[in-house]
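Reading a protein record of the kind used here takes only a little practice. The record below shows the convention in full:
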Amino acid sequence: MSNSKIYFVAGATRGIGLALVAAIASKEPTALIYAGGRNPSGSPQLVELTGKYPGRAELVKYIAGDKAGNEALAKEIGHKHGHIDTLIANAGIAKGMGKIHETSVQNYEEHFSVNVIGPVVLFQAFYDLLKASSLPRFVAITSGAGSIEMIEDTPMDTSSYGMSKAALNWIVRKIHYENDWLVAYPQCPGPVDTDMAHESVATLGTSMMQEVFKKYTLRKPDHVANVLVDIIMASTREADGGQFHNIDGGRYPW
């Protein structure tokens, strides 16, 4: 069994997840980090990064919503360490932008499956390992698009994505109230310069794209991850649990 802090980052092959692994490794010199993705060895950047931290960062296969796979991974980590300290549910999708009447049911189902059921399955699989930690944290990476109150301020049609993030926010807030031993909250990283962001925006029309980039400045993943890790490391149940965090230290309306 290990006395080191154990982290698991879901969706670590690119973007924010990849940057989170790098930030944790840099800021927590004794931490052990499991970097999960559908095909982790297929990410040259992640392979290179974990190679810089032998014995401290490990690639693992993680598929959002795969109950058997998540449970097997938790069992493996539990056998090695007996606990997990920080579980970061970062894996997610944002496919296509459209109004409700023009977005397919299949698109809604896919977003809900990955962005909502995925973190639920992850939390369930690692529940006992979190409970074995002296300071357990469950943080879900969400989005301002999941704020119901802020719908009118969102310039793009994020119906399926926004719906899934609103549901995720509810789930994590409920987890907070159900588990008085846990620090749990949804964390919005703000607009980030990732492949997923560009892929999503590319589906919009030219005028809408211009409106989006006029409203938002995309921050670099490394900068965002460094700020997020500082927030996570300092978080407490009393001050932060069950709150909808933004990256600037404030709170979003639900």
